[in-house]
Amino acid sequence: KNEVEQSPQNLTAQEGEFITINCSYSVGISALHWLQQHPGGGIVSLFMLSSGKKKHGRLIATINIQEKHSSLHITASHPRDSAVYICAVLLSESGGGADGLTFGKGTHLIIQP
Amino acid sequence: KAGVTQTPRYLIKTRGQQVTLSCSPISGHRSVSWYQQTPGQGLQFLFEYFSETQRNKGNFPGRFSGRQFSNSRSEMNVSTLELGDSALYLCASSLLLAGVGETQYFGPGTRLLVL
Question: What are the chain B neighbours of A102 within 8 Å (beta carbons)?
Answer without folding.
Answer: 45
